[in-house]
């Protein structure tokens, strides 16, 4: 459910945007009296008070600080707003803009596997996802997630297969720890309004530079799968498209339940609603495991310089 990321030009735009977001610290005026106000006396003239040291102001960063030593049980992902329990399948339906601006049926199926993969020194939970547009497969993806000891979920990379008329036409993978790729934050343990935007990962070779910020908390929404309170809404954006946001709605204990958009830029405008939540049977989990292994086998052949450098996926436990 990720929007296409910007091309290499986004790096320059992002650096400029981040520099522009940093507030300027203000110094208090000096307490020194003026010369005219100094009394004529033999006593020494009062000296100016020292300028106070400004309080450090937090600034946005291009990438997040990643410490593999704080992941004691990384594949247990029980974050309230992004839980990943093996065998859970979320099915979304909605629409997206076509090439001529027409609205086309769009669906996404996201399934949490019982497979794991070590990335950048941390074991990750693997999620398998595929997208259908007008009933045709347009993308399948392996995505990698790990939760740190505080409960924050990290986005560690993706291997997508892009399809046209049933044929793979691209595999723009990014994997943390390979080349310049960096892990990013996907969901804080305790999301709060007013926090700075955060990187969701950094893959400059494929233009992955998505960022997000907390848009709203304590919201409510209804979708075909049910009605939810205490909903968190995040705004994801591409720094090369400053007036287009993908809004994602997360319900506690469930995860994503709705995808919308905001901004003036009329591009994609993907909308999705959670339609069903299902739990796979053991037989279905076994088939899914083979799907992951088959996809990984292709990844080693089609994406040797990035995915080909990683350790093989394996069943959890």
Measured as a percent range, the helix fraction is 10-25%
Series of H and E elements: HEEEEEEEEEEEEEEHE
Number of strands: 15
CATH topology: YmcC-like fold
- CATH class designation: Mainly Beta
Based on CA atoms alone, the radius of gyration comes out at 24 Å
Query: What is the CA-CA span between the terminal residues?
Result: 28 Å
Description:
The protein is mainly β. It has one domain (71-309): YmcC-like fold, CATH 2.40.360. It has two helices and 15 strands. It has helices spanning 9-21, 282-302, and strands at residues 88-97, 103-119, 122-133, 136-147, 153-164, 167-170, 174-175, 184-187, 198-199, 211-223, 226-237, 245-251, 255-262, 271-279, 314-315. It has a 15-stranded antiparallel β-sheet that branches. The protein is globular. The two termini are 28 Å apart. Residues 3-49 have low confidence and may be disordered.
Structure described in brief:
The chain is mainly beta. The protein has helices spanning 9-21, 282-302; strands spanning 88-97, 103-119, 122-133, 136-147, 153-164, 167-170, 174-175, 184-187, 198-199, 211-223, 226-237, 245-251, 255-262, 271-279, 314-315.
Topology:
Blueprint: H1 9-21, E1 88-97, E2 103-119, E3 122-133, E4 136-147, E5 153-164, E6 167-170, E7 174-175, E8 184-187, E9 198-199, E10 211-223, E11 226-237, E12 245-251, E13 255-262, E14 271-279, H2 282-302, E15 314-315
Antiparallel strand pairs: 1-2, 1-14, 2-3, 2-15, 3-4, 4-5, 5-6, 5-7, 5-8, 9-10, 10-11, 11-12, 12-13, 13-14
């Amino acid at each position: 459910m990720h929007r296409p990321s910007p091309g290499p030009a986004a790096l320059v735009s992002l650096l400029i945007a981040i520099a522009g977001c940093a507030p300027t610290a203000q110094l208090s005026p000096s307490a020194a009296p003026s010369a005219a106000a100094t009394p004529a006396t033999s006593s020494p003239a009062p000296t100016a008070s020292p300028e106070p040291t400004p309080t450090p102001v937090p600034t946005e960063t291009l990438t997040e600080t990643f410490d593999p030593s704080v992941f004691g049980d990384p594949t247990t992902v029980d974050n309230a707003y992004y839980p990943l329990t093996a065998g859970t399948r979320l099915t979304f339906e909605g629409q997206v803009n076509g090439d001529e601006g027409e609205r086309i049926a769009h669906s996404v199926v996201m399934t949490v596997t019982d497979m794991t993969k070590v990335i950048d020194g941390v074991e990750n939970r693997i999620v398998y996802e595929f997208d259908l547009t007008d009933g045709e497969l347009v993308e399948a993806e392996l995505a990698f997630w790990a939760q740190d000891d505080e409960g924050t979920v990290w986005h560690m990379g993706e291997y997508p297969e892009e399809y046209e008329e049933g044929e793979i036409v691209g595999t723009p993978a990014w994997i943390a720890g390979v080349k310049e790729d960096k892990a990013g934050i996907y969901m804080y343990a305790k999301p709060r309004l007013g926090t700075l935007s955060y990187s969701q990962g950094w893959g400059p070779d494929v233009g992955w530079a998505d960022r997000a910020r907390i848009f709203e908390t304590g919201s409510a929404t209804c979708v075909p799968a049910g009605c939810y309170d205490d909903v968190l809404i995040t705004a994801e954006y591409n720094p090369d498209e400053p007036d287009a946001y993908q809004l994602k709605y997360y319900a506690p204990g469930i995860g994503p339940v709705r995808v919308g958009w905001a901004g003036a830029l009329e591009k994609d405008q993907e909308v999705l609603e959670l339609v069903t939540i299902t739990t796979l049977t053991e037989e279905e989990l076994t088939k899914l495991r083979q799907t992951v292994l088959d996809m990984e086998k292709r990844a080693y052949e089609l994406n040797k310089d990035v995915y080909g450098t990683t350790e093989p996926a394996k069943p959890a436990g």
